[in-house]
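Researcher: Go.
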Amino acid sequence: MTDAGELRAAAATSGRLATAADGPPQPGTGFRSGFVTLVGRPNSGKSSLVNALLGQKLAIVSDTPQTTRHRFRAILDSADYQMVIVDTPGIHKPHDALGEELNKSAIKALEAVDVAVFVLDAAKPFGRGDEWVLEHLRKLSQPRLLVLSKTDLADNAVCAEQVAAAQAFLDFDGIYPLSSLAGRGLQEFVDGCVARLPAGPRWFPEGTQTDQDLSVLVAEFIREKILFVTSQEVPHAVGVVTENLEYDRKRGLTSIQAFIYVESKSQIGIIIGKGGERIKTIGTQARHDLEQLLGTKVFLDLRVKLRKGWRRDINQIKRFGYRVGD
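Model: Structure:
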């Protein structure tokens, strides 16, 4: 994935990089564009926010910590602006090479950013993990916003306590309470981000919703269903790779073959289930979402493979696309 800095360098070389503009967009004042990076602890609501802003599901979500493994860019377009939203893995205390790479990926996404957004779960007490994330934001000179997510799960007093705790640690340029589920506060957040974007080019073609490779999206949609179906039994030990993706125009059918990698033989049994029941459920649920994503009928072939200790193997992590710069 090309970083924001590389895109900027290309634009500057071609003379397309404009200077920053102050205040909200006004008619006739030019087009605004830039990169808005979301950071926070695992399960703080970043991916749900991305999906709510786009109005469709592109980022996977679950209650399992560290669901997001890829830096994910989503694009909001209008006649006046293009806002590139960068969703990142939750920053956490790593326990293996995979965790270290996910943290690096999230922190690297703060490079060349125009607006940095700290996403704080309203329903979970502000703690040391949040402070650790904010330590990285303290180093930035760009605008730093606070999003208090999941406000539908907490009362006003709790929300006020969360905001006060975060403000005591860092002085934010804007605070946006919202609920992705209820759709509250989303437009206010977008307006706040756009008002802080510089004047600039349209980084991606009009109508683009994400620059994520389709094979990665497919693999992630499958992994999400594994998280749902297997609960806490194998979540972090699972990696999914799309091996084949073919579209038959005449039949209106997309054929997909994907490999599910686990770290132990017992996990193979957990994924497959008694009589193949679990993997069938995973396939059925994944196929439903993939048909919505692709707009075609889907034939999905899932196979389970053993890769012992892959989360500690940097080469396997790279192959799965979880390494910084991949």
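Model: Residues 1-28 have pLDDT under 50 and may be disordered.
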